[in-house]
């Protein structure tokens, strides 16, 4: 346990809240220097690196990937934390700090897997790829670069080591971020009949799209597709009917609903509103497009992971993830069977006083190793 805690503490103290992943890539690469492992850097900028660590197996034609991002979200309320957010404070039960759960705990488990395999009496049956990615919290440039470079071409399975309290995540919602702009006609606030309110136009758009999305089928693990208006600007003065407004929408689609269908739906709604309200013009721009992903129910990898969980004392109750992961950037392109499983509670991700029980990191490591032994 002491090794697990100290390794996690080192990762937390290396700040990667926004950029700086190079320093963690340096640190992890150093841990595998002089071993049978091979490494490869993906250099995105001077400060932003991703790292591939390959633990060689007996069969080089196949691989299993363990994927973990090394960036974190920023901290805006550091003085309010119980312990400094980049201290990695350990109180004997939890390790505290930004990224402890999301997801440097998972990164720690990945490192421990690699070190365990290298110390074993014989190599694993297949190559084990430890993929430490940058920029997952924004555009996913790390995993995109790896996917485009063919890193997943030999993969027969992948663990996405995000926090799930070590229970198998077999699906995740997609994300579609739309920026909707409305142009209307201004008029005096006392004569709204002479103008066309851009704000009213966006509100009508939001209501119709939300209604259409809620009418869709519910997913057994993830419920229904959701939509939230998350930013808004419009109007110049209280007594002027606004002729311009802009809003952004965060839409989280369940598996079975494709983002392109939502984009088409949005366009149809916008066109209908413009016809109904002469003088109104609506346009939508896509800011983020991450598809929903789901492991097929009959996947043999899913059964292997369920069995590995049981062997490690974890009840493999399947769950769905409401957030997107790096998986959205390589699973649709490659079709690699995946399970999202890692240490930590996703409910405290991005929150003040983020923390993790290091015993979960040990459990995750053991589940990964048990599953790898069956591939």
From TrEMBL:
Cofactor(s) essential for the protein: Zn(2+)
Keyword terms, alphabetized: Hydrolase, Metal-binding, Zinc
InterPro entries: ArgE/DapE_CS, Bact_exopeptidase_dim_dom, Peptidase_M20, Peptidase_M20_dimer, Peptidase_M20A
GO molecular function terms attached to this record: hydrolase activity; metal ion binding
Domain Peptidase M20 dimerisation: 172-267
Superkingdom as given in the UniProt entry: Bacteria
A Pfam family of this chain: M20_dimer
PANTHER family linked to this entry: ACETYLORNITHINE DEACETYLASE, PEPTIDASE M20 DIMERISATION DOMAIN-CONTAINING PROTEIN
Protein name: M20 family metallopeptidase
Organism the protein comes from: Neobittarella massiliensis
């Amino acid at each position: 346990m002491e090794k697990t805690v100290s390794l996690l503490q080192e990762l937390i103290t290396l700040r990667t809240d926004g950029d700086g992943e190079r320093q963690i890539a340096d640190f992890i690469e150093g841990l595998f220097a002089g071993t049978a492992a091979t490494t490869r850097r993906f250099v995105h900028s001077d400060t932003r690196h991703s790292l591939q660590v390959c633990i060689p197996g007996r069969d080089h034609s196949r691989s299993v990937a363990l994927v973990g991002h090394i960036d974190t979200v920023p901290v805006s309320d550091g003085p309010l934390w119980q312990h400094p957010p980049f201290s990695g404070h350990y109180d004997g039960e939890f390790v505290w700090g930004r990224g402890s759960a999301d997801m440097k705990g998972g990164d720690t488990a990945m490192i421990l897997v690699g070190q365990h395999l290298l110390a074993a009496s014989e190599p694993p049956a297949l190559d084990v790829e430890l993929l430490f990615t940058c920029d997952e919290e924004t555009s996913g440039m790390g995993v995109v670069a790896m996917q485009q470079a063919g890193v997943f071409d030999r993969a027969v399975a992948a663990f996405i080591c995000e926090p799930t309290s070590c229970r198998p995540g077999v699906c995740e919602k997609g994300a579609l971020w739309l920026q909707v702009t409305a142009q209307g006609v201004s008029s005096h606030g006392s004569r709204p009949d002479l103008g066309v309110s851009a704000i009213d136009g966006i509100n009508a758009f939001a209501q119709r799209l939300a209604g259409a999305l809620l009418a869709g089928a519910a997913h057994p693990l993830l419920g229904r597709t959701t939509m939230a208006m998350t930013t808004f600007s419009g109007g110049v003065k209280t007594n002027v009917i606004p002729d311009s407004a802009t809003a952004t929408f965060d839409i989280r689609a369940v598996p079975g609903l494709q983002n392109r269908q939502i984009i088409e739906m949005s366009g149809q709604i916008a066109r209908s509103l413009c016809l109904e309200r002469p003088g109104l013009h609506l346009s939508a721009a896509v800011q983020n497009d991450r598809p929903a992903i789901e492991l097929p129910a009959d996947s043999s990898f899913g059964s292997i992971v369920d069995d590995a969980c049981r062997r490690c004392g974890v009840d493999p109750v399947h769950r769905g993830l409401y957030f997107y992961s790096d998986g959205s950037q390589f699973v649709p392109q490659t079709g690699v069977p995946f399970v999202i499983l890692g240490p930590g509670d996703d409910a405290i991700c991005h929150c003040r006083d983020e923390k993790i029980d290091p015993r979960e990191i040990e459990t995750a490591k053991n589940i990964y190793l048990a599953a790898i032994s069956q591939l």
